[in-house]
Amino acid sequence: MFVGEEMLPFVVPLAADVVGQHATLAASRQSPDATAPAPTDPDPPPVDEPPAREWYGWQTLLVDAGAITAMGIAAHANGNAGTVAGWSSVIGYALGSPIVHGFHGRPLVGLGDAGMRVALPLVAALIGIAIGEASCPPSTSNFLFPNSAFCGLDGMAVGAVVGAGAASALDAVFLAWERPKRSASVDGVTWLPAVAVERGGAVAGVGGRF
Question: Is residue 134 one of the residues assigned to a domain?
């Protein structure tokens, strides 16, 4: 094939371009790793995430069980023993569970719980008095209670017990939840509290996990 002098300036660059493309294609075939995508890391192993919330309502229920036990003792005891048991029951019911919330780092929840434990039995006792008075026979012997104050006392006792039980249940079911606490870890070492009960006493300390 003969090319005239007037076509030579166009043919020479075109030939150089074709040669360059063939050289690039040959180089890519000789080194396939140059154009292959970089390998990706395998999927990391799944991490066990802690639960969103933890329930400690069993602790508040234990405190309320102690208050109920003290109230039962007060009902059957005489003299100073009955008085001490009665006040212990009232104080343990009103302040025991709020203190538990405080130990879990939730003082505001504890304050709300204390208010609920006072308000619900009081409101339920007033409702019980009203129901008891409405069921009594007519009487004009009392100024504040036209029927009979003694009939209202039974309703007051029942209402107070129902209100206290409702407050205890609401506390354990809805308020006794917290976010899990992560143990402290420094330089790959996890420190955990340890308690061992032995004959003659108990031993408390700190253990490490490496």
Answer: yes
Note whether residue 109 is domain-resident: yes
Mean pLDDT of the chain: 75
Q: Is the pTM of this model over 0.70?
A: no
Tally the domains of the chain: 1
- The mean pLDDT of 161-188, rounded to a whole number, is 84
Cβ atoms 194, 64 nearer than 8 A: no
Among 53, 72, 90, residue whose Cα is nearest residue 181: 53
The two tokens of residue 199 are: 């004959």
Q: The domain containing residue 66 runs over which residues?
A: 54-178
Q: What is the pLDDT at residue 79?
A: 87
Q: Per-residue pLDDT for 157 more than 80? A: yes
Instruction: Report the sign of the C-alpha dihedral through residues 141, 130, 165, 91, in that order.
Output: negative
- The answer as to whether 45 is a domain residue is no
d(CA 193, CA 206): 4
pLDDT of 207 over the 80 cut = no
Residue 81 lies in a domain: yes
CA-atom Rg of the chain in angstroms: 40
Cα–Cα nearest to 133, from 162, 161, 155, 159: 155
pLDDT of residue 89: 95
